[in-house]
Design a protein that fits this description.
Blueprint lengths: L8 E4 L2 E9 L2 H9 L1 H4 L5 E4 L6 E6 L1 H4 L17 E11 L3 E5 L5 E9 L2 E9 L4 H23 L6 H16 L2
Antiparallel strand pairs: 1-2, 2-8, 3-4, 4-5, 5-6, 6-7, 7-8
Helix pairs in contact: 4-5
Length: 177
């Protein structure tokens, strides 16, 4: 993938899609999405009931995903220690498709397929409320997926908030038009 292809794509005024190519099998990456002990290393801990109608309860502990000298920007200070999200599973076809509501910020869809000896992961976040949500969500997904890549590859994690801040500025440039 080129550097530009790592950025999310605005599909409509309320939808963004981001893609990653990961090493491993579809079953491996499904585990990183659905198993709490793996998911908490790159995104959030909590419950995902893997059935349509199942509960989604995620707790983001960004402080645990970065370094002590990488504080949350003032805009996200309330999310530094802990942020909670609830939702409902809207689609579940293990190990290839999972979708669920994302609190009051629409719906997220994860699609997995074999690709080039690895896995193509497509994350689509739809029904966003406006440009501000789109920028925040795009930077957040991009940063969290970068964390996932480092976890899957066994590499050192990036500085989450530093990365998120840079990405949010870049998404403002790319998606605002």
């Amino acid at each position: 993938m080129t550097t530009d292809s790592l950025y999310g794509e605005r599909l409509s005024n309320d939808t963004v899609r981001i893609e990653r190519h990961l090493p491993g099998s579809v079953q491996d990456i499904w585990a990183w999405l659905t198993e709490n002990d793996k998911r908490e290393q790159w995104m959030a801990r909590g419950t995902l009931e893997l059935r349509v109608g199942g509960a989604v309860r995620l707790e983001f502990r960004h402080k645990e995903l970065t370094y002590a000298d990488d504080p949350a920007p003032p805009r996200y200070a309330d999310m530094a220690d802990s942020a909670r999200l609830t939702g409902v599973v809207t689609a579940c076809e293990p190990p290839r498709l999972l979708a669920h509501t994302w609190g009051d910020q629409g719906e997220v869809r994860y699609e997995l397929s074999e690709s080039g000896g690895g896995v193509r992961l497509v994350v689509t976040h739809q029904r966003l409320r406006g440009l501000e949500d789109m920028l925040s969500v795009s930077a957040g997904w991009h940063a969290h997926l970068d964390l996932l890549v480092t976890r899957v590859r066994g590499e050192a994690r990036p500085r989450y908030w530093e990365l998120h801040t840079r990405l949010e500025a870049e998404y403002a440039r790319r998606l605002a038009g």
